[in-house]
Every structure is written in C-alpha cells, then in structure tokens.
Design a protein that fits this description.
mainly alpha, two-stranded parallel ribbon, 2 domains
Length: 135
C-alpha cells in the first residue's frame, strides 16, 4: 500500500480525473476495499486514496512478468548506462513554421520591421512579433 500511495501521489495530476487500474501480485490488496479495516496503517493508506477512481486487480506472479523484472535487480552488472532526459519545447518552432506559411502575417511582420518607430508596442524577436512583450 505504501508503494501504491506513493505512486498515486507522484502521478496525482494525471490520475485525479481518470479511472485507473492498479495491478498487484498481492492478493490481500485486491480485497482491501471490501474487508474490515483493522489497523491504523490501513486507515491512513485508504484515506490517501480517497477521491480517486481506481480498481485494484490481482495478477499472479507468473502473469505479471513486467513487475517481476522491474522489482528484481540483475545478478551481475556488466555495464552502467546513464540517460539524461531533457524536455524539448517545440511549440515556438512549430508556431514560426506555420506563421511563415501565412502571407498576411509575413506582410505585417515586414511592415512592422520597416516602420518599427511608428509602432513601439510591437517588436521583432526571432521572426515573431510580440506585442508589449507577449506573443
């Protein structure tokens, strides 16, 4: 239950509005919502899951190979791999590409470029035309 509540807390913003399924190889967790809650720990963990729409499904160890492989460390580590993940924001690039194909925008951009002293609230920034600092 600790692992489940930790995972739900981490992914909270995605799980709040959706129904989701919790797969576990612990048969007792499947009956958690229908059994009598006896310990303080059970009360605490169930309170943390209130408000979510979930279903706990039991899957035996032999049918849950993905969880088995994730929960067991390899016996020997022959090499070490490190991965760095960096978010890539593509919105501005896609916006520039679409605006370049729009003749009215390119004409206005050229007009502002030529007469920038008449329209100080507009500026040119990397082929975009922000108005008072906003795109």
């Amino acid at each position: 239950m600790c692992t489940i509540t930790t995972a739900v807390k981490k992914w909270r913003q995605y799980l709040l509005v959706h129904r989701f399924i919790i797969l576990t190889d612990h048969r007792s967790l499947k009956e958690l919502l229908t059994q009598v809650i006896q310990t303080n720990e059970q009360h605490m963990y169930l309170a943390r899951l209130m408000g979510y729409h979930y279903e706990i499904q039991y899957r035996s160890e032999s049918h849950n190979q993905a969880a088995n492989s994730l929960s067991r460390l390899p016996e020997t580590v022959s090499s070490l791999s490190l991965i760095l993940s960096v978010p890539s924001l593509t919105f501005l690039g896609e916006l520039r590409q679409q605006l370049e194909a729009h003749p009215e925008y390119t004409g206005l951009r050229q007009f502002i470029r030529d007469t920038h002293h008449k329209y100080p609230q507009f500026s040119l920034s990397k082929d975009l035309v922000p108005h008072s600092g906003h795109i």
